[in-house]
Design brief:
5-stranded antiparallel β-sheet, 7 helices, 13 strands
């Protein structure tokens, strides 16, 4: 048996499918069998041999390689999503519902529409669903998600000037804490370390382990150390360059390299 990794959304989760006799390469578009019916996906991991014992659950199969007709169907689905979004927003305004609709997704066979929204609390959207079913004539699902998921699905430009990490390559959200910003010596101003979603930036996790490792052999801020230039209290550290800034008894600030520390035994002042 051969399995292939397929992704349905940019930066989305990669799912394994049995590719059968198809010769596939990364970047190829295929139609696959899913629990929701046929789906349109993109190959991201080339086919590789595997035994049935190594597969936790039976793999669904690649139905066929996408054709021009499939791309036309995909284009029609995008138009349907736009129409559904506009109508749903009008209904939300009419019903005065406290919810933020941000996108609509259609299954490939167009037999179901999923409306994604954020809200501060629970929303009674029963009347809204009735209005949508009557107008659109298809299955409707309302899905409330968190603000970080909204940022991942809608995308955007981060403060670094590049597309947001969550919408380009992050497959899942890792826990982020303010301690990570402290470890890296970053400003603790929320406006400077928060992303477009209003939560702490995902990139705070990228170098956190590196900073922890680099600081492992450096003295902590507030300790007294002996150096080639005399004794002083550590007031700043630069883990990347392995340099320490100390203040001596005269109040002068000196910057030294960690190799200039004479006494490794640190004493709390």
């Amino acid at each position: 048996m051969r399995k292939v990794g397929i992704r349905f959304k940019p930066a989305g989760k990669i799912y394994d499918f049995e590719c059968g006799v198809f010769v596939l390469m990364p970047g190829d578009h295929v139609i696959v069998e899913t629990e929701q019916g046929l789906g349109f996906g993109t190959v991201v991991i080339a086919p590789q041999a595997c035994s049935e014992e190594t597969v936790d659950i039976p793999l669904k199969k690649v139905h066929r390689i996408a054709t021009e007709k499939d791309f036309l169907q995909l284009k029609e689905n995008r138009e349907t999503e736009k129409t559904a979004y506009q109508f749903c927003q009008e209904c939300i305004d009419e019903l005065s519902l406290k919810m933020n609709l941000f996108t609509v997704e259609s299954t490939f066979d167009a037999n179901k529409l999923t409306f994604f929204f954020t809200a501060d609390g629970r929303v009674d959207f029963r009347q809204l669903v009735k209005m949508l079913v009557k107008e659109l004539g298809t299955r409707i699902e309302m899905r409330q998600v968190g603000i970080r998921n909204q940022a991942k699905m809608t995308g955007g430009i981060g403060r670094c000037g590049r597309r947001t990490c969550c919408s380009t390559f992050l497959e899942k959200f890792d826990p982020i804490s303010i301690r990570m910003a402290k470890e890296q010596g970053l400003s603790l101003n929320p406006t400077k370390i928060s992303g477009q979603c209003g939560r702490l930036m995902c990139c705070l996790t990228f170098e956190n382990e590196t900073y922890i490792e680099l600081k492992r052999n450096l003295p902590k801020i507030g300790t007294i150390i002996q150096t080639n230039q005399g004794e002083g209290k550590v007031i700043r550290i630069n883990p990347i360059c392995s340099r320490i800034t100390i203040r001596n008894e005269n109040g002068a600030e000196l910057e030294v390299h960690k190799c200039e520390i004479l006494d490794n035994k640190q004493q709390e002042k």
